[in-house]
């Protein structure tokens, strides 16, 4: 479930960026420049695949304290990036289309068509790097207990979902409210980040860096064991622990309070769509997103 959500969300964001660039070029009659966008996206995907393989190899070669601290760092880095991504998108999503179109038009007017390649490459590459980090954190939480078949199938379905939704939006086959989609997935991503923070705090307590304050506040394992199917889902998405320490509870609940307050605040003061973009036609429902 976590792998599917991450890849669906990241693929959707990257595909929207590429789709906006492509639609802008078509409207301007510059279809010959589309290949620069496709090459930029393809090169970014290839680079991310190589980095993902390298990350897996490096992690498998490490052991002892180095591996422990790397795992802890991945948990907190993934949580930080998830948090900033959610807050940034909440505030800036309405203006993204105009910004992307503005950059594309500026590049074409100045005769620097290679900027289109860079826009596509950097946009897709950024989403790919985030995906690698998030999936790394998910893999550490699972600790190899689920095997490779389930995450792989979830990943394929996630990528397919993201691409199909964007294709449907640009072709006019779907009227899915993307603002609602981003809002719901943002909530799930915050909860997922809370689970990674809980795992990171647990590792720090286990090696004696943090004090648990109280080793076990309660024991709910008889009601919901965190190693069961449902318990694992709650553990990853909500930071649920059947026998939580007080430090874990303070950290996770504090994080959730701050993030949901920030999410609500930014949804109230988010920027209005920028002016100067190409007027959206009726068949393009992506004007309120990236």
Task: Summarize this entry quickly.
This protein is mostly helical. The chain has 8 helices and no strands.
Oligomer: single chain
**In whole angstroms, how far apart are the ends?**
24 Å
List the total number of helices: 8
> What is the CA-based Rg, rounded?
21 Å
Arithmetic mean pLDDT? 79
Characterise this structure:
Helices cover 74% and strands 0% of the residues. The protein is mainly α and 290 residues long. It has one domain (2-269).
For this entry, give a set of tags.
single chain, 8 helices, elongated, mainly alpha, 290 residues, 74% helix
Write the layout of secondary structure elements.
Blueprint: H1 2-27, H2 34-61, H3 64-110, H4 114-142, H5 149-171, H6 178-206, H7 229-238, H8 246-269
Helix pairs in contact: 1-2, 1-3, 1-4, 1-5, 1-6, 2-4, 3-4, 3-6, 3-8, 6-7, 6-8
């Amino acid at each position: 479930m976590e792998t599917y959500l991450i890849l669906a969300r990241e693929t959707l964001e990257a595909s929207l960026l590429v789709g906006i660039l492509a639609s802008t070029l078509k409207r301007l009659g510059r279809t010959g420049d589309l290949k620069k966008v496709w090459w930029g996206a393809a090169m970014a995907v290839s680079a991310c695949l190589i980095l993902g393989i390298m990350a897996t190899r490096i992690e498998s070669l490490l052991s002892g304290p180095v591996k422990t601290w790397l795992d802890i760092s991945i948990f907190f880095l993934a949580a930080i990036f998830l948090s900033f991504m959610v807050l940034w998108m909440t505030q800036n999503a309405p203006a993204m289309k105009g910004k992307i179109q503005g950059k594309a038009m500026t590049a074409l007017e100045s005769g620097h068509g290679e900027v289109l390649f860079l826009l596509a490459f950097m946009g897709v590459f950024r989403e790919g790097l985030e995906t690698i980090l998030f999936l790394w954190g998910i893999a550490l939480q699972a600790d190899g207990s689920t095997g490779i078949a389930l995450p792989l199938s979830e990943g394929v379905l996630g990528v397919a979902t993201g691409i199909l939704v964007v294709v449907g939006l640009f072709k006019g086959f779907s009227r899915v409210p993307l603002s609602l989609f981003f809002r719901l997935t943002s909530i799930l991503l915050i909860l997922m980040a809370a689970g990674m923070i809980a795992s990171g705090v647990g590792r720090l307590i286990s090696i004696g860096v943090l004090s648990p304050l109280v080793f076990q506040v309660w024991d709910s394992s008889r009601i919901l064991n965190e190693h069961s199917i449902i318990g694992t889902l709650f553990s990853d998405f909500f930071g649920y622990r059947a026998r939580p320490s007080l430090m874990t509870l303070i950290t996770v609940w504090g994080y959730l309070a701050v993030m949901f307050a920030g999410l609500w605040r930014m949804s109230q003061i988010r920027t209005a769509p920028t002016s100067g973009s190409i007027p959206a036609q009726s068949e393009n429902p992506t004007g309120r997103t990236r």
